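Table S2 (continued). Query chain:
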Amino acid sequence: MYTFLPENFTPVKTKPSKELKPMICAILLGLVLVISSIVAWCFYSASLRRASRLKTELLDLKEDGFIIKNRNEEVVFRLAFQSGTLNLDSCSKEGDILKCTKSDKGNVNFFIQIVKPKDTVMCYRVRWEEFRADTEVQHTMFWDDAHWYGGAEMSVQHWPIKLSGYQEPKPFVTSDVYTFRDSFGGILERYWLSSKAAAIKINDSCPFHLGWNSSEKSLFFEARYQDSSYKPAVGQLPFPELSYRVCVGSDVTSIHKYMVRRYFNKPTKIPSENAFRYPIWSTWALYKTDINQDKLLRFTEKIKKYKFNCSHIEIDDMYSKMYGDFDFDTVKFPNASEMFKKLKEDGFKVTLWIHPFINYNSPNFGVGIEKQLFVMEPSGKLPAMVQWWNGIGAILDFTNPNARDWFQNNLKRLKSKYFISSFKFDAGETSYLPKQFSTFRPLSDPSIFSRRYTEMAIPFYDRAELRVGYQSQNISCFFRIIDRNSVWGYELGLKSLIPTVLTISMLGYPFILPDMIGGNFYPNSSTAGTDELPDRELYIRWLELSAFMPSMQFSVPPWLYDKEVIEIAQKFTELHESLVAPLLLELAGEVTDTGDPIIRPIWWISPNDIRAHKIDSQFLIGDTLMVAPVLEPGKQERDVYLPAGKWRSYKGELFVKTPRFLTDYPVDLDEVAYFIWVS
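Corresponding output:
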């Protein structure tokens, strides 16, 4: 049966009851929450997957840098990417390698690789390579609350590192830091170490520039070829690459030992034992370029008269007629052969000052041009002339085996003719290379020139000294710190000696010559002393400190002062010979195996002692002899820090309750406070 409805019939819509409205709203809201939860979970899962992809053992990578923690979850290394940020979506993790292929600038080759060489050490290989020539790679490392050590010899030297102001990155190459005060020194390595047991070594292949910002406590590590003295290797595109290795250990001493054994060469031999035992006597500070035969013989007679021992006499600047000659000026040394015969009979060995320059007025300048022995202009047709502190000349190209052999053969003839023992090799820094030049073998890193100069000295190592060092730890010579002024302070003065020696020690150079007692005494640049001599008290305190260094060197002699100064000098040269030298020679014998420094910071035996991390006026010889000299004018006392252990003072006092500070510990003018570890 069918029901028929009228055409104008409209059904009545049923309205939901008031009770159903809240239920419908709740269902809709629930659906929204469920969908939101699903989206949030997907996003969170993706974030977790990305986080796990960008996190490796104790290292967290972000788009703008990374941090490294130690096993106690303490942040020990923090670095920011200054020149670009990573696109984290381009990153992936394959085993121990984390890779990224894009940054905000475009394509990059970035990776971090974990290397775990031993249970107590974790290392991270880091590399950022650009694919453009007109750019740079810059990373910023923050000091934070750690103390840092290493890097380079500086004109103002502190321990730990203390830099001032703001410095744009500049080439990290060897320079004469006495003349060019804002540069890096003649001894440097791309290595830094922190009190929090983190260390960083920049790869040798990088066109490395260094800058800093003291207000934010940071170092700038930069790689670039543009507007730089670095050049890409032959056949290599000029794409900048910054690569380095960061290693973290259990304490500052153990991580340093690991880094030295892994990255530095070690000396293969030990210099002359007498250079450790007896003072070196130089003519420089006393006579400058006004040395001659009579003055030299009178100098040696006085050494004998006052009964001082002597490793060797060092004849310094201007014994030849022209710079670049390899013989004695017959006006200043009318009978050089007889003079050397007498010196030999009197028991004196002799070394000569030498340098890599051939001035234009030397007969050897023409020889060098004919034989193509010099660093050349970029065209390779003419020698590149340089101005150095003694005039204008050409510089020998030690990348050229012929130039090296010619120079060595001239030195060997000098040795044979006059019974010369060895040479004081001056200069060798890149600051004396012309701005534009070419060498026999191209130099991608200018400091390799300094390295080649040190290699040239190997046949003369026994009593030789060098003032440049770059990747030269295997050269078994004494390395001399740059000239000091006769002043008390941290800028090339007495207070700079311990920080400089400790820095060079940490860079892997154990045989260190701390320059001349009392400083070089340049009257125009010195603020301590009369017109004739360095300040008397300064001279005495310098002498006392030098007695505990690997070698002592006199130039201004003690007999120019008075009887007390002579007696203090005799006392400390004897103490050096009897107490210090035997320990030095024992440690020198170990260096060829371990690479451990001879002169060590206080933290070496107390690596977790935060007070030891910043002590800059005390040091150790080995682990058993601690030295605390007086370095302030007018003082006959000083504060001394004794690290943990039993210590017996030079006065016989036994200190058992340590670590502790000895406040205002009395030290007379003729004393150095030193302490021997009691087992």
